[in-house]
Amino acid sequence: MSKPKILVARAIFPETIERLSQHFEVESNQSDESWSKEQLIEKLKGKQGAFTTGSERIDAAVLDANPDLKICANMAVGYNNFDVDAMAAHGVLGTNAPDVLTETTADFGFALLMATARRITESEHFLRAGKWEKWSYDMFAGSDIHGATLGIIGMGRIGQGIAKRGAHGFGMKVIYHNRSRLDAALEADCKASYVSKEELLKTADHVVLVVPYSPASHHTIGAGELALMKPTATLVNIARGGIVDDAALAVALREKRIAAAGLDVFEGEPKVHPDLLTVPNVVLTPHIASATVPTRRAMADLAADNLIAYFSGKGPLTPVTPVPAATK
Ligand SMILES: NC(=O)C1=CN([C@@H]2O[C@H](COP(=O)(O)OP(=O)(O)OC[C@H]3O[C@@H](n4cnc5c(N)ncnc54)[C@H](OP(=O)(O)O)[C@@H]3O)[C@@H](O)[C@H]2O)C=CC1
Ligand SMILES: O=C(O)C(=O)[C@@H](O)[C@H](O)[C@H](O)CO
Question: What ipTM does the predicted assembly reach?
Fold first, then answer.
């Protein structure tokens, strides 16, 4: 029997391609450049499966043009690149890559918080520019992490990982906001208290965003929310571009309405709002929160596992679209 045909839409570990090739006829993107929508549609022709990353938008146009497609396995926990309604309507399954990146991403969220609050990159740029001539009492004085109030919006797997690091490691008071409250045992584990979004913004010293992107979470933080925050507060976004109104944030940073921000994700990335590039009190990283070698391998393995499980009739492991009874 011939092997199912799959497309790997971005360059990935050679070992992943080798493994997939044992099960599938694989065509892969070798260039590490994202394909245009038209190229993606063309490359998907005749493919039953796709290995995608957050860069590939799977929507009605892609699905209409590719009736053979059965499953898209995302190498990411976030799947806002999937139009899940269109996929469900076309009977195409979507899977994501949860859990395997939780601790790594939580580590990074905490690292970005510390770099931001303690002004690490700003001070390094100063030193590298040869500007360090003397010590002074307020040189790059930032805000404390230990003992401060940490506010987490999006207290899921990664949010809880950050909460535990803050509460248990740094003696922080943790408050959080979700649409629904965690059960008492999870709150106790994280030493976290549920508050409204408004109370969180008003009382937190550090606000960390780990909420998935959806129309409901678009601009969770805009000018109005920034105005509620303390002038000494820091904001960290490791969630998705579009959760923060980047233009409004750049104004708030320039006018010191909040102290600083740490951003791993951007509206319209890889483009970054030009005003963010010119304000000093922001730490900018290129969407690398899950980027450790073991974690990226685990994410690739899970995406591959989903394709292999589905085509061997076992059903997808981590579906994010409805799974028809026959494929469960
Ligand atoms: N920068 C990077 O490289 C990475 C970014 N991410 C991002 O982090 C996100 C979270 O991942 P993970 O923790 O595994 O996901 P989870 O699904 O475990 O957690 C998401 C949390 O957000 C809450 N939430 C969802 N929608 C809203 C809303 N509109 N307002 C307030 N809270 C909301 C959910 O609770 P409730 O439903 O009760 O509201 C839930 O607690 C991913 O979707 C991805 O976008 C993840 C990995 C790496
Ligand atoms: O998992 C996610 O949701 C992510 O944002 C990151 O881990 C990925 O690096 C990125 O989406 C590439 O697929």
Answer: 0.99
